[in-house]
Design brief:
By secondary structure, this protein is of the alpha+beta class. It has 2 domains: 34-115, 2-Layer Sandwich (Alpha-Beta Plaits); 121-170, Roll (SH3 type barrels). 20% of the residues lie in helices and 34% in strands. It has 4 helices and 11 strands, in the order αβαββαββββαββββ. The strands form 3 sheets. The chain has a 5-stranded antiparallel sheet with strand order 2-3-1-4-5, with helices on one face. Strands 6-8-9-10 form a 4-stranded antiparallel sheet, with no helix packed on it. Helix 2 (42-51) runs antiparallel to helix 3. The model is unreliable at 1-5 and 12-22 (pLDDT under 50).
Length: 171
Amino acid sequence: MAKKTKSKKPSVKEKTEVKYIASKEIKIPAIKDGTVIDHITSRVTLKIMRLLDLQEYQHPISIGLNLDSKKMGKKGLIKISDRFLTEEEVDKVAILAPKASVSIIKEYKVKDKILVHLPDKIEKIVKCSNPNCITNIEDVKTRFSVIIEEPFKIMCEYCERTMGRDDITLK
């Protein structure tokens, strides 16, 4: 006659390990309303956070770094609850992450998706790196022309200083 054995309940640790093995994807919580910035390089994700001044924001923000991406290999992602970007903020994102997408989320659904692009002219967003430029001496808004998108290069329309992505300071 076979002996009956009592089955042992799995511990919390064992349950967690099973869940991890079963799902190899990293899940970032959905947002009800807000903005998702996707397809950004991981190295600029935190710069975009600072650029949008999100460190003082009081609603939930989810950040993903080095997430697997079919298009990019690795990518960054920012989900901002209850906040929608202005056109100027989208232009700032385009300067740091020209291949990014910005999705507007309402009631957990994507209502609009914007593939960012660099405008031909960049105004009031970038500070000129030339200390003698009129924009750094007087109250004049900056204005740059985009010379080349990749590798990124812009030129100040006042002093003609050219700058690359690593040279710029955003206002």
